[in-house]
Amino acid sequence: MNNNFDIIGWFFERIFRYGNKCNIFLFNSLIHLGCRIKGVKIGKEVIFNGFPEIRRFENSDIVIGDCCRFNSAKNSVRVGLQKRCTFVTLRKKSEIIIGNNSGGSGITLLAAIKIKIGNNVMIGAHSMIIDNDFHHADPDKRHDMVDIPARPITIEDNVFIGTNCMILKGITIGENAVIGANSVVISSIPKNAIAIGNPCKVVIIKSWNLSPK
Fold first, then answer.
1. CATH number for the domain running over 7-205
2. Strand, helix or coil for residue 212
3. Which residue, 28, 30, 78, 152, has fewest beta-carbon neighbours within 10 Å?
4. Would residue 126 show up in a list of annotated catalytic residues for this protein?
């Protein structure tokens, strides 16, 4: 092991770290203003590192709780991002509701009915949460975008979703659950579970010793 001081590594690590802080300092307030102009309800101390894509359908709701963080800038996380965070409501009365201290990097949330995310939820880079099929399976209806199947999604408190996951319609993920990277979740996951795969399946139920907050 080389114990010599690595000035090059130190220098570029500081560029990464302070570059992100500078990006947030310069643009976070502007992004907040843009969100409010679009009718998004934002809590206290929400951080946007990079500009998200937000499209709110008329008479629908996008609500973000306190102390959330969303990374959209390409170099905002160490794995690098291929896309911005995207929040879209597709119909009247559809909802995206995000609790306190939650967030993600380059994530996509698309709601035709409702996506509800609890507190302290971590969503890995490039994961997608979609409560509808976008196109009907019936070929006679597929091109008309009529009567598209949709069911609400609920992600409870303290859930950790790994990178590149897909959460599909009608799913509930119970509190404290962990969803492994690259999983496709097509059925509900119980609380305290670790689940992974395509389709996503429970591999173990843990007894988490969570300290009180």
1. 2.160.10.10
2. coil
3. 78
4. no
